Amino acid sequence: MAELCDSSAVELTRLMAKREVSPVELLDGCLARIAATNPAVNAVVTLDEAGARAAAKSAAAAILRGDDVGALHGLPLLIKDTQDTAGLRTTYGSPLFANHVPATDQASVARLRAAGAIIIGKTNTPEWAAGGNTRNPVHGATGNPFDPLRSAAGSSGGSAVALACGMSPLASGSDTGGSLRNPAAYAGIVGMRPSYGLVASERRAFGWSNLSTDGPMARNVADVALMLSVMASDDVRDPLAYTLPGEPLRGRPERWNTPRPSELAKLRVTFTEDFDFAPTERAIRRVFRHRVAQLAPMVAECREATPDCSGADDAFAVLRAALFLATHGKTYQERPKMLGPNVRANIEEGLGYDLQDYARAAATQTRIYRAFQAFFERCDVLISPTITLSPRPWSELYPTEIDGEPTKSYFHWLALAYGVTLAGHPALSLPVGIDEAGMPFGLQIVGPRGGDAIVLAVAAALEAAFAATPDLRRPVPDLARLAAAPPLSAAPGFLAWD
Which domains, and CATH codes, for the chain? Predict the structure, then answer.
């Protein structure tokens, strides 16, 4: 039987407002679920039970007084361990910061807290979010909720797994090369990469780079939209959060928190298995083709096409390496052994490039962006698989081959996601049943430039249309099996670097 912690954030907000559910009662349910299932998957790595209980009691009192409250009032929230939380350990998955406790929240976290969310803990991530497999030498590996010995992807793997297990109705993520979308696909939940600048950030080392952004994660589209309505904002420290004086372009919650499902019968959809460059597994292609066949009769037009993404592998590799070199180059020079293999690989790659390489990558990214603009003149949304292959064991640092063909780097298998990253368009991973291996399958929905509301509306419509079909609805892990499983920390290699 479903418990309170399995309810949607939207429904819980309604119940708390009507005083049918207390924030204290809801928190108790989430903490109980964490206690029961987290040992099997290691999604939550730091828990602030005392602080959360105090906040829940305060939230309950505010409701009883009839106070005006924020959009997330009383909702438990988990924060990715790369995002600073005031007074709560934040390690970035790095042994250099194993005992680090920030004095202040980063801006995106502060907005969520100010809206009434109750931060209950931190979720696992690879070291410095560098990797598509969630494991680090501080907190160990995170297992997939459908098979704890398989990968949860990354880098927001802890958040995705926690959501799938009902540990919290909302969780934060971040996305560079699919760090939010990929784990959402592997765990069977919803994760959205917003348009760059929509969720302002004061923390990017390259303020003018669109590669990295924070974003919302939840179990359904409406909850993601609710969370985005709080996260969307302006911040003068973020040069990409461009705002005209006196014209707030982001801080308008009504634009995001109630997505009206699109009329599917009028929708023009294009689809691609691989953007003509991503090394997509044959088994994933088969499942995707089946999903397209099921979707096609619902929409006005469904045709196969892709923007020109030629050169995407090279451009992303160079731009990513430059970002890591700027962020971690000094540590590499002074204490290289305190960095893991993924971070070192990016830095060493960056040291091998020159200004001509960077110029080529920047020009390629601009060309891909413009190709996307021309492409979206002929369609409303573009869909693809979210990720190139079905989950493999987390003991594998990254897939070195796909269908017998070697991958180019530890992040090459994330190409379906980073092709969209380069263009900067909003994208969402929607769970649509399982793949041939019985693991969750994610459908990536990409919208036009600035089309975050369009992506949410289309995702909401598809979610509703698929809800009655067993092989298309969101899969749910076997929580009883997880509760009875041995702790993941006992598995060989749990704390290994590689």
Answer: 4-490 (3.90.1300.10)
